[in-house]
Amino acid sequence: MNIVERYTSPTPKFFKVLRNIGIALATVGGTIIAAPVALPAAVVTAATYISLAGTIATAVSQAVVLDAESDADSETPE
């Protein structure tokens, strides 16, 4: 499976939620960094880390794919 197939394959529900949270974190962090008012250095530094964490969470969550075998195994209780 190449990278294009991986990113276009279906994503499990948990990772869709995690991806959306990551997008929100990256957006909030980017907004704080780009704020037109002077903010304390600690706030800008924290926003940088929040933005980075959100970006990483989004990328990793999008790369997770549903596996047909594991999905079938989870639905059959034994």
UniProtKB/TrEMBL annotation:
The keyword Membrane applies. The chain crosses the membrane at residues 21-43. Keywords: Membrane, Transmembrane, Transmembrane helix. This is Holin. It comes from Neotamlana laminarinivorans. The lineage of its organism: Bacteria, Pseudomonadati, Bacteroidota, Flavobacteriia, Flavobacteriales.
